[in-house]
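Extended Data, panel c. Modelled sequence:
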Amino acid sequence: MNTAEVIQLARTLGEQLAGQGEMLSCAESCTGGLLAAALTETPGSSRWFDRGVVSYSNEAKQTLLSVHDETLERYGAVSEETAMEMAAGVLAGAPRSQFAISTTGIAGPDGATPGKPVGMVCFGFATRTGQGLSVRAETRVFPGDRQAVRAAAVAFALSTALELFSTAD
């Protein structure tokens, strides 16, 4: 997916959110702000984008997003469990937002561990509901170099958010 297509995905998501009077926040690790940059590329995005947190270190994940020590120790920073806590954590700190997206992964060229290859990205998607929070995670492994992995992660996060958040109550 090229840059123009990613920007169009972000614009479509933003139009959907604005049309519903809802806002989005994000928490990023491996994408390092690329998701927030795509979301804010469109003029007027402040109507539907509240905030973005780049939490590259484990300490940042803990202090800014309330990711638990136990989660990081047991599952690691690159895990669905951490991605879910990141999404829930940014949403907890963003009372105006109804939705959150998080990314954490191994963009490469190094950093792979057994069971966690380069290109593996875990995504968290949180929705504020009348009953509290609904949080889910997905993991994908993207091919290519660091730049390709990060770009693919942003595209996947946006397209998945469009699907999930359009069906949210």
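The chain has a mean pLDDT of 95. This feature is highlighted in the accompanying rendering.
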